[in-house]
Write a sequence for this structure.
């Protein structure tokens, strides 16, 4: 499907509801902002961006605040019972009920995403696993449809592409460089620097420190349990850092955040697809998956809670079960079925 097909579909609608995935990141937020601008250029007056979960990562909070992104909390019933002529769009995710609170089976009009999916069902689908960011795809539409590119939109899209590709070092393609070249002249350099260097909370620093202290290494794979934390987005930051340790090719960090177990994985090992690995290990008990080099997961804590009377016991149980599942999936040597290190005696 083409940019003209997207414009024509948007022009049919009286309003557009754009749903972000749970705990949206810059790639998702920038893509939603860009799709809203595309809709406005097509004559759609009523537009809204919805999200669920939290915006807790300091870069995500800075993104929303500095760029003044207008967000609303997602009400599943309202999304499902939209008025006639109201279009529903997903950006940076694609399936109702998977990493979002939209009820399963809800009809979707537009899906634009770069994450792996077996199949996607919508009136307009642009699914490109081979590009490094969903924001790259939206940048192409902004360019091809000659949508006004102001400093806010250009900065949002360029920052999202840089963040999603870790500064053009992870999963980057020629398309990201082309998009960056198009966006560069309209970008606010000072704002881009502010987004790249936000203040880090003490709780985030504590969670990252805990991940370093509790790391265990099995060959070239590192696992770390941060225990209970209020900072969900400290996990991917910890995984990013731990993946840079000498001899480590795959880093997986997990911990308890409110009523879920959250996981974040990074890998440079050509033999490992961490998205597939997390899906194989945890898809039967939660949502997990992602790319070859970057993935995440979420497991309801109810799976463990009935067997644990207090927080310390619960953290130990989570570590045992998660480690055992990862060990089985990744074939980690020296880790028993209960997740504990095996003796060489």
């Amino acid at each position: 499907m083409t940019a003209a097909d997207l414009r024509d579909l948007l022009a049919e609608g009286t309003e557009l509801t754009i749903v972000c995935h749970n705990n949206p990141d810059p790639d998702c937020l920038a893509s939603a902002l860009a799709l809203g601008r595309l809709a406005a250029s097509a004559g759609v007056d009523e537009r809204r961006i919805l999200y669920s979960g939290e915006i807790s990562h300091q870069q995500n909070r800075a993104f929303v605040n500095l760029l003044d992104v207008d967000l609303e909390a997602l009400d599943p019933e309202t999304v499902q019972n939209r008025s006639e002529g109201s279009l529903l769009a997903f950006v940076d995710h694609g399936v109702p009920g998977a990493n979002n609170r939209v009820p399963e089976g809800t009809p979707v009009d537009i899906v634009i995403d770069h994450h792996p999916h077996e199949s996607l069902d919508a009136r307009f689908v642009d699914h490109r696993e081979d590009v490094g960011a969903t924001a790259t795809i939206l940048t192409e539409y902004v360019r091809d449809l000659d949508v006004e590119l102001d400093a806010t939109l250009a900065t949002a899209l360029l920052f999202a592409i840089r963040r999603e590709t870790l500064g053009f070092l992870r999963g980057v393609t020629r398309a990201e460089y082309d998009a960056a070249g198009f966006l560069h002249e309209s970008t606010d350099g000072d704002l881009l620097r502010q987004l790249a260097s936000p203040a880090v909370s003490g709780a985030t620093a504590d969670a990252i420190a805990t991940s370093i202290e509790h790391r265990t290494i099995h060959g070239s794979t590192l696992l770390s349990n941060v225990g209970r934390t209020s900072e969900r987005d400290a996990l991917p930051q910890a995984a990013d850092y731990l993946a840079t340790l000498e001899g480590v090719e795959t880093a997986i960090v997990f911990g308890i955040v409110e009523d879920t177990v959250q996981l974040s994985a990074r890998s440079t090992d050509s033999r490992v697809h961490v998205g597939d690995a997390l899906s194989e290990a945890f898809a039967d008990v939660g949502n997990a998956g992602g790319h070859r080099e970057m993935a995440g997961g979420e497991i309801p804590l109810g799976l463990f809670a009935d067997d644990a009377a207090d927080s310390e016991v619960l953290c130990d149980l989570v570590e045992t079960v998660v480690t055992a599942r990862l060990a089985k999936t990744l074939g980690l040597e020296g880790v028993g079925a209960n997740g504990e290190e095996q003796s060489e005696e």
About this structure: The mean pLDDT is 90. Residues 163 and 248 are 22 Å apart (CA to CA).
